């Protein structure tokens, strides 16, 4: 104070300073501090640096050598007491630096430094003063964190650390962080850890505002758990004086006394950080090894605090009734004890914890959502902590409490207003106990508590007896489950355990069929009450329900009882309700009628969905009308007035049920016949009315809402309705239209008569039809479907000449939009509309979908003009593909539906094997042959459509033919990829030779002819036409795919021709030579390496032709003039070739017919051999030079 210059220089101020200095000079402590501050600190700093260097060199072992202290005659304490301030400071610094050097050495046990200076309490004040001044004057040499760490190893270290931080409060964070970071994982396992805990706790008591930050640091670093617990308890106690004055008695248990002890410890045990969970659980386990009465344990303090909370909660109970204000706190406390028992293996004390816990568990909470949660937690605690009912008295209390829950469950469910009550959990536990699924009970409890519960199965014997004998017998459980009301608006967002869980597990264990309790109505009502997002248990519930209908419970199962399937009337009652007016994002509580479009009437909405079988339609005034029988059946089903929470969800679940049922029935037909059981089979009439494609598309778009249903639904559809799961349908996106324009009044009338009239005038007035089609494109698909009948019935009007391509393309887009709604009905209507009219005027039967599935070639029996209209041919190819798939699936299902059990004789004459397995193999072969026959016939018809007609050799006809050929080749390519056997069959059947080049160049998958190596088989056939076909095919394949395998096949073809030339007769030899010359030229062009074999073969051709010519009459003079005609034939062929084709050589038969009148056949053949030889040499040489 005397060294500070005053700001006020008045006489009064100077006099006041003198008085204060006079008073301070009379205090001994002040004089000693002034003496310490008067030391020469720069010189001392130099010596301290030398001392540190010496300690680094010598370590802590040599305690005699020191730079700061020399000639120490007496003991350290005596020297400190008798020395001047400078020597005192040097003595203290020497001792601290020695400790700092010694603690750096590796040691196994905690190091404690015995020092007279620190051990004697009488020096504590002076040591504190000297230490604080040294730290203040030498901050660079004495970091507070390192000094604090050294002080922990001397007596009275925590006190000195506290005084040091009190004099330098700015170093609080540095000191605390250093102490925590260097602390142990378990701070109560060693003396050093206890000292560290004591020091940090004292610092936090000095600065309570930083206590929670220090606790967070402990958790983050996973160190000193005891300190974290003590800080939490201290924070709760320090808050009691502040909050206790303004809180009520009922809420004081947690607000005034507890702080966040329960939530904090629960959060540590249930943390997402595995390292933190393990760290705190280990703290609890190691704390139990000490005696319970040991007060130094943080775990003891924590358990004492929790026990006190239990007592305080039970103080407010009257007649075992828990007040509403305490329910949430009691639930949290029970959950904490469950976590301590399950995750940290805490053993409850008989006299201090078990009785209090059971008394709290068996309280009667109020009927509220919090009360339901408290009861559920209490039930789970009885499972997770079986030691609560280890005595008979406790077991009796638990049994009475569970009986009270069963009696009050309905009241709780009604009064609390929550969808999930503890009744479902009670029922589910009873079911698992009855079927000995104890692991499932533990999983159930773990899911309810949100933690992994570890309980041995043999410890659950008492609680199992209570459930299975005292409260729930098996018959009571089954009867009670049916009476439980379904969950209204069931979706994945509803938490807890619901009645659907109970019914699912009872169905899985076959308890309903065992006690002959019908469950069909309950499942049907729950399906109708389901909403989005779909609850994950619903698909599993349907699966076990279907199993209980078809499969027996045991392996024999002859006397088993089975559940009843859902009737077709009940299914149609749901499907009769409109799905197009339902918004997918609405919650289940919104009524479906509110989301309906305002511009559509109720009758329109109900009529849109119903897709009726084609056999019941009759043509009237140009469009299809439903028959009265279908209307009456639908009206009767819709009169059931089934309440449906979400129409789309219920229909998807019922569709999944139907597909799964049929799949299960077909896969187990053998077992059903062996057991002489007849199960219900849903009619194809029912499936024909379901909007399967629309439901599937919706589920695909909203997969987040149907997470557990979409994948199994697609799997079943691919098996039973592959025609609805084509890749192009998944990839196709309809052109977008402005939805807001769809509700505007159109400029043209959009009724069936107007559509029919516009399509009839398509050639004369295409503009009107184009405007109408544009309006149709803007309509939603469900509104557009009302005009599907006139759109498909008048499709042949678009085949008239003069219809613009824009009209055809727009019509195809509209057809594809309709295809996304009711595709199967649309396909049948389109096939019916494309059939040619009977020229004899006879009436024919209207085709149904079943007719076309039995004979898919109905699709190709359409008007011949379709094969020159590219947009409509694309639709025909699409329908052909889907109906071939449908036929294949239908035949497979028929075989599954009618398996062969036994037969008196074989289907094949002369066969002695009459086993059912052999008969099944025969049926499978016949089915495969029929499918291949249908598919090959379709390919042959399409190939014939690619033949060029006379009027298509030039102009627009050639361009149209080129597009048609491209569409056909694309279809054939996909067909060959799906079934390579089909490619082999088609080529073994053969097709016109002028199409070979088209097929090889236009069908990329033709390379399989080389890879599968079936051309040699074709060359071996005893049919000369097939052999020539194989040679020509080899030539084109060689030009398209010049590979080593193609070279081998080409060499085989040359050898085959040479062999045939030597064994056939005169006419056959001439035919072979005439037909194979262009093919040999093509082979030579592709493979110059075969030029020697080809020249040798041509020489043989020439010799045979010369010899044959010598035997015939002499030719006329100048007969060589036929060569000019041959050149003209080649030029004509070049003029009419396609853009993507090479010039095809003239057909030998055609040239022969035109030239035979001029010269003898042998002479013209000889001339062609010479011309082929020239071309072969030229082409092969050019290819050789190119490579």
Automatic annotation (TrEMBL):
GO terms for biological process: snRNA 3'-end processing. InterPro entries: Int2_metazoa, INTS2. GO terms for cellular component: integrator complex. Keywords: Nucleus. It is found in: Nucleus. Belongs to the Integrator subunit 2 family. This is Integrator complex subunit 2.
